[in-house]
Amino acid sequence: MKSLILAEKPSVAKDMARVLKCNKVNKGYFEGKDYIITWALGHLATLWEPGDYDVRYKNWNMADLPMLPEKLKVKRLKKTSHQLKTLTFLSKRKDVKEFIIATDAGREGELVARWAMLLAGYRGKIKRLWISSQTDKAITEGFKTLKDGREYQKLYEAAVSRAEADWLIGLNVTRALTCKHDVQLSAGRVQTPTLAMIVEREREIKDFVPKSYYQIRCQFEGFFGHWRGKKNKSTRIFNDNTASEIMEKLEGKKARVMKVEEKSRKEYAPKLYDLTELQREANRRFGYSAKKTLGYMQNLYERHKVLTYPRTDSRYITTDMVETIKDRLKALEGTSHGKLASEIAKKPIKLGKSVVDNKKVSDHHAIIPTEEKPVISKLTFDEKRIYDLVVKRFLAVLLPPAIYKDLTIITEIEGSEFISRGRAIEELGWKKVLGGEGRNDQEEETLPEQNLISPKVGDTLEVKAIKREKGRTNPPKRFTEGTLLSAMENPGKYVEGRDAKAILSQGGLGTPATRAEIIEKLIGSFYVERNGKTLTPTSKGKQLIEMVPAALRSPELTAKWEKRLEEISKGKEKRSAFMKDIRENAIELVGVVKADTKDFKHDNVTKEKCPMCGKPMLSVKDKKGRAILVCQDRKCGYRDEKKKKNDCGISVSKRERGMNKRLINQYSDQEDAVTNLGDLLAKFNK
């Protein structure tokens, strides 16, 4: 008897086949003495389309909304139906004793496998492979410790609930908005509040009124200080006259040291990476989109096997992993970090709660290097960058804290207080590997640090120079993908009139695995544009937020949903109760759209006419920030891609180039055939 294994992708199946000695290669699967290994190709199944339930739903009509089928059903995906056919055949073999789910160890991976099993008609025993890396060692040990598939039934229920909620809310509100305004508009439980945050930030920037302020800087012997208010402790003076009065008082006066505070301070390394934090860092440092970073990480996990599972929301490891750390360090020998890794490996590994915490690891631990020795020459330039980030953060948490001596000096001149701050590093600790990396950008007012001498309280200091510096307050910064990921992870401060901590406890917008996809969808739907590193809402995006029901705009609703999905996966909430609320939400949200009186107006219309329907084209930007033209008629859907010139110097679109190429090939084939026929006739006549 054999076990049937379903992997997520062919590449993963191939690795498993090698490790499990399934050497017989068949169309769509590998086979060995004990195992048969097949694979999914993304999803093999999907929820029914509206038109599958009722023919009237094939047309978009407001009168038919909301669509609320009694039970949502699953069907095969046409593009992967051949692989589902293979799975169905294999699952019905008489020598198959059990089904092993070996898709990605997470909510969506569980959904891929369970829906495929459902359509394949498998009803037998189920086991689950749950591993966080694709190394030979991890695969071997994972198959020795397979879990009972029933332990993951609740995870599957959460996954189905997520899919059905997106169908019921997303499709109904999308159709309602589109029918109402005759424009292709869409809404969703994650994409809409995410877009709302971008639009609200743009409004804050537009409404921002800059204020001028002054700072007074005194240069003493060997260091400088800034004036600060005694009550509010701010170094900024927003009144010109007040600044002038202070300057007049200081002229020709000496300073007296009022306070000298010296502290030795420890600074610990930043935590290990989860997916969102790594996407943030890669965007900040390299300008990578969240989607690109995830792609590089997926390659490092699946193809090169040098990183652990990327789609994680944890920044901690578990206690049982500590004993594997020296093997992971040994794998770094021969890399640019090999010397430091060897030094760390020689000493006992001692880690605190900031690194090891079983309670803060649910499905997967933080992203760290595997025990697989990397072949650096096989990594692309971008993959090397991502791998380097993970390795450096991993090494940093294994090093002692950095130790500083911080010095603060308070001086006084004619009743005005001045503050000076300095820092001297005593032990580098983790900064040997990370230096100044790992700190988040700080928007709040900070004083410059300097190397300070250490005067005594009561000392009199000469004032070498006094300078008044003028500045202006800055508006909030536009979101980058990095800062937007942070906002999606912690949306509490974007909810008005509510306690932010309460909202934060409900969960973020989406999951680490889906946030990159949401950002790409907003850009692809022309609601948001990339302008360099920043994200800017379009007129279409702004108008959509005005028309979407208020409940769907707020992060509160979707954050609560995400929290409830988590509770379903843990068996703390019933799926039926959640879905009942989702159906009620769908009815309510469609009703709000129907009652709305706002109108949508295109303000990016050009003079160019659509070659398909003759209507004026709209000027938009694609995902790469390039200007393109699209037809404003949603039923037409024509896009004029970036044009290139043909051999005659005439501009030809991408679509036209494809048609021309096919015609050229067609006529070339005919010409070759005629030439060959002529040669044959000539030979025959001879």
Automatic annotation (TrEMBL):
Q: Name one GO biological process term.
A: DNA recombination
Q: Which PROSITE patterns match?
A: TOPO_IA_1, TOPO_IA_2, TOPRIM
GO MF entry, a single one: DNA topoisomerase type I (single strand cut, ATP-independent) activity
Top-rank lineage group of the source organism: Bacteria
Q: What CDD domains does this protein's entry cite? A: TOP1Ac, TOPRIM_TopoIA_TopoIII
- Keywords carried by this UniProt record: DNA-binding, Isomerase, Magnesium, Metal-binding, Topoisomerase
Name the top EC class.
Answer: isomerase
Q: Which GO terms describe its cellular component?
A: cytoplasmic replication fork
Query: For the Toprim domain, which residue ranges apply?
Result: 2-135
Q: Which reaction does it catalyse?
A: ATP-independent breakage of single-stranded DNA, followed by passage and rejoining
Which protein family is named in the record?
Answer: Belongs to the type IA topoisomerase family.
Q: What is this protein called?
A: DNA topoisomerase
Origin species, per record, is Propionigenium maris DSM 9537
